Amino acid sequence: MDWSDVILLILAVVIFVLYIRLMLKNKRLQQMADEANRLRREATEAERRNRQLKQEMTSNIAHELKTPVSSIRGYLEILLSDKPVDADRRRYFLDRCFRQTLRLSDLIQDVSIINKLEESADLFPRTEVDAVEVAREAVRDLADKAAAAGITIGNNLPPMPLKGNRELLYCIFRNLVENSIAYAGEGVDIVLEIYKESPGYYYIHYYDTGKGVADEYLSRLFDRFVRIDEGRSRQNGGTGLGLSIVKHSVLFHGGEIYAKNRVEGGLEYFFSLKKQ
Fold this sequence. Notes:
Blueprint: H1 3-80, H2 87-119, E1 127-130, H3 131-141, H4 143-148, E2 152-155, E3 161-164, H5 166-183, E4 189-197, E5 201-208, H6 215-218, H7 230-235, H8 242-252, E6 257-261, E7 267-274
Parallel strand pairs: 2-4
Antiparallel strand pairs: 1-3, 4-5, 5-7, 6-7
Helix pairs in contact: 1-2, 2-8, 3-5, 5-8
């Protein structure tokens, strides 16, 4: 092999190496472009889903507002009309108006909490708090309602110090108990207990001995404005956001939650709360 052959061989190797490097570079560029396109598609899809959820939320809120507003308007129109209204009926209409305003107030408060949790969760401050004290407060506030339905509440939770938000912890325990009082039936038991503890988490078991729910509804229990029994839900004054707030509040505290029907009867929830 003479020098010309050697030079040609070297040139061929250099060209081959440059070609391979160019192909690899083009491949990396294509991969980067594909990844960028994928991220753009995911961002667009996420934005679309978020927009759809907001539209559904707005539609649901408008639907929920329609009934109480229409009721208040109807009662007030009767009271302000020229037709005479006796004292008992006047009292009844005013009482119904008052109940509907309470429902509106609860709905506005629950919507505000959901929006803050989804869009500005950092607005909820975290402090050192004992979750069992918050649970006792929620049980105490609902004691009269529970007694009226013949329901007993057993709070067997031990001290659970953690860094969290007192308002959201209160929402967890109050909404769970209130949901059982409204839908589990009369004369049932409610129990709160801790079933496990790790260095980072508390694991809490909540259950009632009531009616439970149909299995097909279990996966939707925490969705917004889900009403298993439409008429009964409205009669009990529920906003349809209570269990959704429970789920978001648990997630805020770094935990998870799921629900299932008890074999012995009733509904039970398992959820965790992060200590720090």
